[in-house]
Give the backbone structure.
Amino acid sequence: MNIRKANNDDLNEIVRLLSDDKLGSKREDYKIPLPTEYLDAFKEIEEDKNQFLIVAEDENKIIGTLQLSFIQYLTYKGGIRAQIEGVRVSNEIRGKGIGRKMVEYAINIAKDRNAHLIQLTTDKKRSEALEFYKSLGFVDSHEGMKLHF
């Protein structure tokens, strides 16, 4: 297995992974050709030095993805916060340690960029994901809130 920064050739499989679960199927629009919104978003991510779209591949097949973002802010003496979003592993191979390796990879990038913390959110409906993140050392120390538009 190889974990690396995503490229344009990976985009179809990344969107397929994002749409291939109970919650993702309701919010994503996976079809070929991909809607232009995904292409535009990928271009923005690819050009932003504070964004990393990561994939895990095995035998030239994309089996996992996550997005790592860096946020510069004034608190913590002008600290940098890393944010993990969109963690997905192919349904047929979940539970085999792929997600753990991807998150550990992201943690190492965050440390290399001198982030003082790494954070993520997970939907409360994903109880297995909450336990997974706790097993990696994440602590549910804050209550997250969202306002959808």
In short: The chain is about 35% helix and 25% strand. The radius of gyration is 15 Å.
